[in-house]
Write a structure and sequence with these properties.
Layout (H helix, E strand, L loop, with lengths): L8 E4 L6 H8 L4 E4 L1 H18 L25 H12 L3 E4 L2 H15 L8 H13 L2 E2 L2 E3 L8 H8 L7 E4 L2 E4 H8 L10 H6 L3 H31 L9 H5 L4 H14 L3 H6 L8 H4 L1 H22 L8 E3 L4 E3 L7 H29 L1 H4 L16 H17 L21 H30 L9 H11 L11 H13 L2 H10 L4
Helix pairs in contact: 1-4, 1-9, 3-6, 4-5, 4-9, 9-11, 9-14, 9-15, 9-18, 9-19, 11-14, 14-15, 15-17, 15-18, 17-18, 18-19, 18-20, 19-21
Length: about 525
């Protein structure tokens, strides 16, 4: 569905946004509208700011400068210029731009926070933001530059400047100057009032948007990991004892139990498992401990989900306007530490899905461990089969080991030591996306290799879930009788994974996975 041709509209009140809603808007092109009761609160806070703007009261960011310049009084005639200068000076990001999906998610999260009515933004400016989102005018936002201190000052400044006609946007499939896009869309640049620049660029919408997009993909990838593991277990003639529900009831971590049940359902009815189940009593850890390893990742992702669900419905700028009490309180809700810790944990958890997958792949290609043809190909020696595919997984896993180092343990003071502890949450989220991308590739290689391995047991019927996964993989890549150009074949399987096709195929066969 093209943006601008939507049938679905999401009403925003600042308190009820779900992670699924974020993807509906960011990826599927849903529109948004503002809840009218919430809009009245926005107007009340805006009126309070206007009163302070025309007074001699000392109110941070309204009658004063920012950061270490909070002691500088700003004259009444310059208080609006102050807000535009803030966005221009803070829009100094570098690096590749965020994807359109992530940028749209950023816009949505910022609007959802502002509609709460505690930020002092005008309704006119907020309506302009909504128009951008609904018309598909997407700011070009560099991905590097945030330390997660006063939130994501740098990227959010890039996000906001096009509302004023500055910077660049993507519109109708092209990158163009914001002023040109405004003209084409029949919009006029907004004129910022007091506090509005600060309301627009304070907050955690950038790291939050990355976090939501990453988490939603990772939740699907966790199911894919269970499927890939089940394929490898069957291909390696694994035994089923480690997945017995009685064992997992004695260590009642939620994720562990969910994964064990998934494996049992995936291999249910497998003639391969039945034939070999009495050959030994236990398997290597990369097979036997799938519920414990994958399950711990599931539990970590649940923690990340809860953190994000709270964050995307929070007020995260500064100062916060309490109209009933007639005060503006300068606090620290913009600090990205909750997201920084969550996304560091996210990266570590997702990296482990790839790490254990690579170990299963190593067993698949090693004939001394698997009993399968060397490197999963007939006439090995002349053919190398999946030898170097496992190298690729090893390289990606090694990359993830570096990327999984937590960025939240670092802090570089900024703003002349006024902001003397920062979260580095933006990088926690960015590297989380990189880890996720690497893990997706590793699991795609396992699916490809395990499907090849399973074909050597073609006289026996696999489990209902694993046969569905195998058939899905085979819909895009063939059984390799001899060496083929592997890169495009791996890419095809990775595309299946990224689209959730393997999970859908399995769930159509055996019902929803945990």
């Amino acid at each position: 569905m093209k943006i601008g041709e939507r049938k679905n509209v999401l009403r925003l009140d600042g308190m009820s946004l779900t992670l699924e809603d974020v993807l509906r808007v960011a990826r599927d092109g849903w529109g948004v509208e503002l809840d009218q009761d919430a809009a009245r609160k926005v107007e009340e806070a805006s009126a309070a700011v206007k009163a302070w703007e025309n007074s001699d009261d000392v109110v941070y960011g309204i009658t004063t400068g920012f950061g270490d310049l909070a002691t500088v009084n700003i004259s009444r005639k310059d208080r609006r210029l102050l807000q535009e200068n803030l966005l221009k000076s803070h829009a100094c990001g570098v690096g590749e731009p965020f994807s359109e999906e992530i940028t749209r998610a950023m816009m949505l999260l910022r609007i959802n926070s502002l509609i709460r009515g505690f930020s002092g933004i005008s309704l006119a400016t907020l309506h302009q933001f909504v128009a951008f989102l609904n018309l598909g005018i997407t700011p070009v936002v560099p991905s590097q530059g945030s330390v997660g201190a006063s939130g994501d000052l740098c990227p959010l400044s890039h996000l906001a400047l096009p509302l004023l006609g500055h910077g660049k946007v993507r519109y109708k499939g092209r990158v163009m100057l914001a002023a040109k896009a405004l003209q084409a869309a029949g919009l006029k640049p907004v004129q910022l009032g007091a506090k509005e620049g600060l309301a627009l660029n304070n907050g955690t919408a950038s790291m939050g948007a990355m976090g939501v997009v990453a988490l939603m993909a990772a939740e699907d990838l966790a199911k894919t990991a269970d499927i890939a593991a089940a394929l490898s277990i069957e291909a390696l003639h694994g035994v089923p004892y480690a997945f017995d529900a009685r064992t997992h009831s004695l260590r009642a971590h939620r994720g562990q139990g969910r994964v064990a049940e998934n494996i049992r359902r995936l291999i249910e009815g497998s003639e391969i498992i039945e034939k070999h189940r009495f050959g030994r009593v236990q398997d290597a850890y990369s097979l036997r401990c799938v519920p414990q390893v994958h399950g711990a990742t599931r539990d970590a992702l649940e923690y990340v989900r809860k953190t994000l669900e709270t964050e995307i419905n929070s007020v995260t700028d500064n100062p916060i306007i309490f109209t009933e009490d007639g005060v503006a309180i300068s606090g620290g809700n913009f600090h990205g530490q909750p997201l920084a810790l969550a996304m560091d944990f996210f990266g570590i958890a997702v990296a482990e899905l790839a790490s254990i997958s690579e170990r299963r792949q190593a067993r698949l290609v090693d004939t001394s461990l698997s009993g399968l043809p060397p490197f999963l190909v007939e006439d090995s020696g002349l053919n190398s089969g999946f030898m170097i595919a496992q190298y690729t997984s090893a390289a990606l896993v090694s990359e993830n080991k570096v990327l999984a180092h937590p960025s939240s343990v670092d802090s570089i003071p900024t703003s002349a030591n006024q902001e003397d502890h920062v979260s580095m949450g933006a990088f926690s989220a960015r590297k989380g996306l990189s880890i996720l991308d690497n893990a997706r590739k590793v699991l795609a290689i396992e699916l490809f290799a395990a499907s090849q391995a399973l074909d050597f047991s073609r006289l026996l019927k696999p489990g209902a879930g694993t046969v569905a996964a195998h058939d899905c993989v085979r819909s895009v890549v063939p059984y390799l009788k001899h060496d083929e150009y592997l890169h495009p074949l791996i890419e095809r399987v990775e595309t299946l994974v990224s689209r959730g096709a393997v999970v859908r195929a399995v769930e159509e066969a055996i019902g929803s996975l945990n």
